[in-house]
Amino acid sequence: MTDKFQRDLLRGSLDLMVLSVLAGSKKYGYLIQKEVREASSARVDLPAGTLYPLLHRLEDDGLVRSTWDDSTGRERKWYELTAAGRKRLAVQAQEWTDY
Prior knowledge:
By secondary structure, the protein is an alpha+beta fold. The chain contains four helices and three strands, in the order H-E-H-H-E-E-H. The protein has helices spanning about 5-25, 30-40, 50-60, 85-99, and strands at about 25-30, 65-70, 75-80. It has a three-stranded antiparallel β-sheet with strand order 1-3-2. Helix 1 crosses helix 4.
């Protein structure tokens, strides 16, 4: 694959990756980054400058919701899927499978 194609494929798949990671349970930013990296065998390294704007957009779109929690000893913003996010994930996963 060409570098441009790989970049375009990645850009178009980030929502699906993040929604997939959040399907299991709610997570904070670093855990999302870590799971995406692990799931992709380290091929996808999602920097904070890409992840957080993406999460904010998904939240604005009603696909994820966030809550602040300090039960781990440090205040962190946790993200979880909404019903609309689960529906979008199902649609995007099927589209990916069809592709």
